[in-house]
Design goal:
Blueprint lengths: L12 H7 L25 H15 L4 E6 L1 H12 L4 E7 L11 H9 L12 H11 L5 H14 L4 H17 L13 E6 L7 H10 L5 E5 L5 H4 L1 H13 L3
Parallel strand pairs: 1-2, 2-3, 3-4
Helix pairs in contact: 1-10, 2-3, 4-7, 5-6
GO molecular function: hydrolase activity
Organism: Desulfoferula mesophila
Keywords: Hydrolase
């Protein structure tokens, strides 16, 4: 289970409690995120796919079911393209990677938001609250408040420069590495899950991803924003279970 940009293993704990009885779960914090180390590395979906491939080899994991959320979906797509033998199936929840070029976002990120040291030009604690409100869609959801407190505590601590570096590099790499043009090469069953009110990954990007997936890929929508891993856990788990059951 692979988290998204700025996320951590905490994002999957609500789902994990419902899946752990039937599955052995591997829920890492990617390098540069959460509790993991944050060294000077080329963060981004392609890099993370290499890291996860090596981690799977080290742990003796073969042909697993891989689930990725947001950037994690882009990472898992990249893994399926580069190391198809590792995947028995793929679940992409509100995945990134369906943009058609970087448009103006890369320039805005690099010229406006980020300085030459790959640090944010400005940062205030209220920005965390604003960001979590946008990604959740439902600002009153209890999980949003808990996530806001957890992220704020980490970003107000001594790791903030390292978090900024990994966030900036990953954000640029997301824009530089769209995966949709190659998705027709995927050889494993795919479940694509969309949030109907997602303000982070627009519907056109989900449509672009799905259009390139091989025949037989499954596309489901949930009435939520970008964070069904928190806001629609029973429904999302039900989709995942039904998808995996159909593979038996």
């Amino acid at each position: 289970m692979v988290h998204g940009l700025g996320g951590s293993c905490h994002d999957f704990l609500p789902m994990a409690s419902r899946l752990a009885d039937d599955f052995s779960l591997l829920i890492p914090d990617l390098p540069g995120s959460g509790y993991s180390d944050k060294p000077d590395l080329p963060y981004g979906p392609g890099f993370y796919a290499q890291v996860l491939s090596q981690a799977a080899k080290n742990l003796g994991v073969e042909r697993a079911h891989w689930l990725g959320h947001s950037m994690g979906g882009q990472v898992v797509f990249s893994l399926a393209l580069e190391r198809p033998g590792l995947l028995r199936s793929l679940v992409a929840v509100c995945p990134a990677g369906g943009h058609d070029g970087a448009s103006g976002w890369k320039g805005f990120l690099e010229k406006v938001l980020v300085n030459k040291n790959q640090r944010l030009r400005f940062f205030e604690p209220w920005m965390i609250n604003l960001s979590t409100r946008a990604i959740f869609g439902d600002p009153r959801h209890p999980a949003r408040l808990e996530l806001t407190r957890r992220v704020r505590a980490q970003w107000m601590g001594p790791e903030r420069p390292l978090l900024e570096r990994s966030l900036v590099r990953s954000g640029v790499a997301i824009l530089d590495q769209p995966v949709w043009p190659r998705l027709h090469e995927i050889q494993t069953p795919v479940l694509l899950v969309q949030g109907e009110q997602d303000q982070v990954v627009p519907p056109v990007e989900i449509q672009r991803l799905y259009a390139q997936l091989p025949t037989g890929a499954r596309w489901e929508s949930l009435p939520c924003g970008h964070m069904p891993v928190y806001t629609m856990v029973p429904e999302l788990v039900s989709l995942v279970r039904d998808f995996l059951k159909g593979l038996d």
